[in-house]
Amino acid sequence: MRHLHAFVDIADSGSVTASAQRLHTSQPALSRAVAELEGRLNCRLFDRTPNGLHLTAEGRRLQTYVLAAFEQLEAGLSDVECDYGTQSVRVAILPTVSRTLFPRAVVRFKEEFPNVSIELETRGDATLPDTLRRGDLDFAIGRLGTSEKMDGLSFNHLYSEPLLFVAHHTHPLSTGKAVGLSDIAGYLMLVPLEGVVLRDELDHFLIANDQPRIANKIETISFEFIRAFLPTTQAIAFCPAGAVSQELARNEFIDLELGDPQLMGAVGITTNARRKLGQPAKRLIQLIEEEAAKPAS
Length: 297
Prior knowledge:
Oligomer: single chain
Low-confidence stretches: none
Number of domains: 3
């Protein structure tokens, strides 16, 4: 088991040095473990390159089996373990979800499982699929990724939300008159980072409307920054409605109504299709689905 843990971590980090630090062991011990494993299997598992260690074809095949075995072992331990108080549910959620349905689901969950801890990450970056595949998370609430990013993962749709161009209510374009895409060309734009699903949606929208790429921009996935930045500037932000729903309701921000009605973002629960979840994680997912199905208040 020690050899396999070393192999999996090195495959993830691409470096014996980095894995030694993460596993709190020595580099020679990890190198020896890999060498012994390669000797037992009679094949090379890694190619040594100037840019680090990369899995060989045999290494990739072994990684698939080992990760699946680890996931099955963890699921088996969770099933046998009846004391839920020693368990935790590891979740990553979009910042927009953290303001809406997720808190309501957690209140209900803690009434049923008061001793089960929830390890919560608020994020929406491009590393989530790999994190789920490694088993570092039980599930994530986020946007549907591209097909190549969803290999081995399962997506269950919860709801769709509009994607908006928003500004502070004092913005020069807040006149009540119709605004076109050409009208925003001279303003600083807050846009999602490249590689994030929202950015792909924006880029496709601009291409479909024969618009150039945005030059004057700040790239961020921090909705907290957007909410703090817009009142102090004449910037315009492209973001999901849920990120600024409270500000829109208080008329602090305005929707410039530049987007197409079909410009929507699908939000759902992504899980590792090969990993069996424990009862607390499955129950939390069920409660989230119930909250998402309730009519908006």
